[in-house]
Specification:
The protein has about 150 residues and is mostly helical. Helices cover about 75% and strands about 0% of the residues.
């Protein structure tokens, strides 16, 4: 069983005892998605930490997008609720890499692959996204790869 799954389950009990509504709601939502992934066909009733991290990233991104939409329609109170839940979710994600750290790792990937021009971008992106999964946004990785290969 996933250690992230266990951690979220444990933290739900803690949030219940502390009567922390925001944290409880966010963690229950996370656990719901974890359970859905765990019981999906072909998952063998298992949820790896890697799969759990992908779910957390997706939920955090969706929450931020929802908050931006709420702000556009002048519903700040809903945006604040959404951002509070995103903050709880982000506590379970690894620390994101800075652009400098991303650039260093991409330079290593370029050196390993021997890429010299934009034709090799797909190969570099494939390895770079695997290497930095959960730690860097794909758009940032893509922009830095383009800059370095141009």
């Amino acid at each position: 069983m996933s250690t992230l799954f266990d951690q979220v389950s444990s933290d739900i009990r803690t949030a219940m005892k502390a009567r922390d509504k925001v944290r409880l709601e966010a963690l229950r939502n996370v656990k719901k998605f974890f359970l859905e992934a765990k019981t999906a066909p072909g998952s063998n009733n298992e949820l790896s930490d890697e799969a759990a991290l992908k779910i957390l990233q997706k939920l955090a991104k969706q929450g931020e997008e929802s908050a931006a939409t709420y702000i556009q329609v002048n519903r700040q109170e809903l945006a604040d609720e959404e951002l509070a839940q995103v903050a709880v979710i982000k506590e379970y994600l690894p620390r994101p890499l800075s652009e400098e750290e991303i650039e260093v790792q991409i330079k290593e990937v370029i050196a390993q692959t021997g890429a010299t021009d934009m034709k090799a971008m797909g190969q570099v992106m494939g390895q770079a996204t695997k290497l930095m999964a959960g730690k860097a946004d794909g758009k940032v990785i893509s922009a830095i790869v383009r800059k370095l290969l141009a």
